[in-house]
């Protein structure tokens, strides 16, 4: 099967997605969209570092991309925003034209609890056009939700899940370092935190995906963000970071269930009416000395699994986005998550 791909959004992630699409024998790039006037009109292959012209010109709108494409796309890969409210009109327009959607929008990974009305609208639109929509990436989409879920398959009972993701942001792209507040004064960090413009997006969605799949009814969740303060001069990032400045972010997401009789996640000991069953610890900083990804599952049986050095987020996000295209094209129509499509694997 040859799947025809329309790429929407040609920032650092979108450009890398194009490179990965070109590596797959079963995929063909037939269109490219970006609003940046500096990119419009350029050949997508040359813009994205493919080393050759693809004769696919970057255009500014979806309508123009479909109108000028030599063949009709089957799927759109959307890499424009983390915010679901901003992405939703784009997704609805894509779906209205009968195209499936794979997106790196973090809030699309599991919006059924965080944005239920919008999730239902997207689901209905996709079902009407008989196509699927998927939000994916390395996190959310894999390391802190789908992977621990898959690992519970060998458990008789699960009492709690903890995932710790620690990254050295030095190897990540500049926009990512800026998103985690690297190089800001603590006052600047706090101002951006309060404005909601500085955070890792997706912890709550990951918590809700895990809980939903395991059948846990959460009483509440929280997502707490604090700066990581540099103790030394750091020069490995996109800008110098002086002692006392923020080198990155630590974000802790938690989910609780009620202590009720017959709930294996709620033992009788302890005075609290709730039990913390999901803990997601995200730490990303320039110069972080010991990056790793660790999953800890308590229950029957209990175990801990660590990936020393951690996973490169940019590579993993682009890879899983491209690798998911066949599964999305064959998935039942509607708004899908990584927990309810066929397993995504690398393929030639």
Please give a structural write-up.
With 348 residues, the protein is α/β, with parallel strands linked by helices. The protein has two domains: 3-137 and 316-336, NAD(P)-binding Rossmann-like Domain (Rossmann fold), CATH 3.40.50.720; 146-310, no CATH class. It is 29% helix and 27% strand. It is built from eleven helices and 13 strands. The chain has helices spanning 12-23, 44-47, 62-68, 84-96, 116-129, 146-151, 174-179, 186-195, 203-214, 313-323, 325-330, and strands at 3-8, 27-33, 58-59, 75-78, 100-103, 132-135, 157-168, 218-229, 246-258, 274-285, 292-300, 303-308, 334-336. A hairpin with a 2-residue loop joins strand 11 and strand 12 (303-308). Helix 1 (12-23) crosses helix 10 (313-323) and helix 4 runs parallel beside helix 5 (116-129). The mean pLDDT is 94.
Assign the structural class, choosing from mainly alpha, mainly beta, alpha/beta, alpha+beta, or little secondary structure: alpha/beta
Helix content: 25-40%
User: Which strand order do you get reading across the main beta sheet?
Assistant: 3-2-1-4-5-6-13
Low-pLDDT ranges: none
Total count of helical runs of at least 4 residues: 11
Strand content: 25-35%
List the secondary-structure elements in sequence, H or E. EHEHEHEHEHEHEHHHEEEEEHHE
What is the number of beta strands? 13
For the termini, the CA-CA separation is 12 Å
Overall structural domain count = 2
Summarize the biggest pleated sheet.
7 strands, parallel
Shape: globular
What value does the average pLDDT take? 94
| CA radius of gyration | 21 Å
